[in-house]
Amino acid sequence: QVQLVESGGGLVQAGGSLRLSCAASGRTISRYAMGWFRQAPGKEREFVAAISWSGSSIYVAESVKGRFTISRDNARNSMYLQMNSLKPDDTAVYYCAASDGPVRTSGYGFDYRGQGTQVTVSS
User: Fold this and answer.
1) Using one digit for the tens of pLDDT, what is the confidence trace for 21-55?
2) End-to-end CA distance of the chain
3) Which residues fall within 8 angstroms of residue 17, CB to CB, at 6 or more apart?
4) CA dist., res. 68 & res. 106, Å (int)
């Protein structure tokens, strides 16, 4: 089993930045593809970004491309999401997830996910 815990969410003004962290425990994530997805109230789950186990392949949703950066540190059993130029539309609960298989480029199909961290962007 892999336990994932997100941190770094909060309230920020439009144009600001946040850095989300995802700490894993239970197993090393070095062989797992990892990703972030988000869900706003009343909306469908939305893919944000994903990264292969080695970090050599990265996928980013068009809605956040150029503003969000995904990275991982397998030695620290952690993954990150740097979010810049935040917009009110980025307001959502952000989830960290792990896939024991191919990289997932949707908000579904992951084997493990965290409890989520709230990101609120004020206008």
Assistant:
1) 999 999 999 999 999 999 999 999 999 999 999 99
2) 40
3) 82, 83, 84, 85, 86
4) 16
